[in-house]
Amino acid sequence: MSMTTDRRPVATLKARLSTDPWRAFGLGLLAALALPPFYLLPLLWFVVPALLRSLARAGGWRRAIWIGWCFGFGFNLLGLFWVTEPILIMARQFWWAIPFAAPGLAAATACYLMLPALAVYWIRPVRLTAAAAMVVMFAGVMVMANLAQQFLFTGFPWNFWGADWAIPGRLGVIMMQPAAYGGIFVLTWLTIIAAGLPLLGRRGWIGSAVVMLLWAGFGLARTAGGRAADTDLTVAMIQPDFAVPGSFTQPALQARWQRDLAMTREALAAAGAGPKVVVWPETASPALLQTDAAARAAIAGIAGTTPVLAGSFRFGATGKVYNSLIAVDGPGPAVAWYDKWKLVPFGEYTPKWIPFKITPGSGFSPGPGPRTLHVPGIPPVGPLICYESIFSGEIVDKKDRPAWMLNISDNAWFGDSTGPHQDFATTRLRAVEEGLPLAVDTNSGISAMIGPYGTVRASLGLDRRGILVHRLPVALPATTYAKFGLTTAGILSFYSVAVAVILLIVSITL
Questions:
Q1: CA–CA distance from 63 to each of 130, 304, 446 (Å)?
Q2: For residue 70, what pLDDT is reported?
Q3: What is the largest distance, in Å, between two alpha-carbon atoms of the chain?
Q4: Which domain holds residue 17?
Q5: How much is the pTM?
């Protein structure tokens, strides 16, 4: 007597397990091509519906989570491959980390895609209205996932879909304007809604076109008054293009110092008459400007009482080390300083939940948080140091709103990879969100003066030594996002989920 077993269901399950995750991984790679500096945004009108279809037919919640993670892994693997660049620079010491850095970080950040994937599977379509519910649910829970990514495990708010719209030129300025009301999060939400509606078929494509027209119309209307006027303050930024990690021998440090001073002299000459300020990028000064009177006197010998805002290290009273911006306006004591408070995990410090040390010594200590500096001769300024500029809604002291923002950075560690371009695009959004002009001064580029609508007034590209001089634009009144910050993102996420649930209920009862 023979027995046969129908293996078709098992074979079908194995086939789906093998194809859907790989398809999701490929879709994630395609979605990453919409990020800066590629900006292939039309791909999202294929990616989002395809991903939602895969989640709807997942066959189980565990597989939906797996598909979401595979999509996130592909998306972040391509979007974050630039993190390997600093390791390659110090390959003799950290060669072992090369195979793990980008894949490991991509695997961790991919976890944030699991919750939106699960939500979509739960609300998978029965009728057309439920398909619409899937799109709205995915958009709302993605905003929730972005908020989690900004705060959990020290926070790493990178590769948000809203940054796709920081396109160079006028088009980017137009499409970024909703950020003044909901930050980068509303741009992510709008992107998913517009790109996901084609899931509904012909009517969905029409709806997507309407969304895009309204979006562009809003941007045109908000910027119709033209660019903001300029103040009488000239900001002169030096871009010294120091090599990294650089030598710490006395001759090398002295050569670095002399370049700082020589470029300061050039910057002052280029700035001409009238009120001005000179800016040095992150850690540009090899001297400890807060305590080194001779160094301040050397600067004063060139700049006089013109304020110089310089990246420098600072030692606190208890011996803690800070990555700081020091303001000097003569040979006397520093008039103000700001300590970086959003430190780079594993680069500037080792998180407490890691059982072994990675950063040398004790690493840097975090400052107290956003602060407005009041330096004689210049409008109140809100400093940011490098990594801090990616934290939407957390960069300005709301009780003491500045007249402009200044981001000093050192992107030389990332070469001419996608990293500096992505960082600049995300940083540019901060100007729109806060309604404030933003000066960006980096060691090796991209340095720029950005107006409060996100318009790049002037810039210096990557891997160049030079001086960037431009008048400081006038700030706009505080935006809705500047007033309410991340609360707007939370409200957007909550109401999106509520609307999605209502649409699902309607589809069931019809």
A1: 20, 66, 42
A2: 97
A3: 103
A4: 13-224+492-509
A5: 0.92
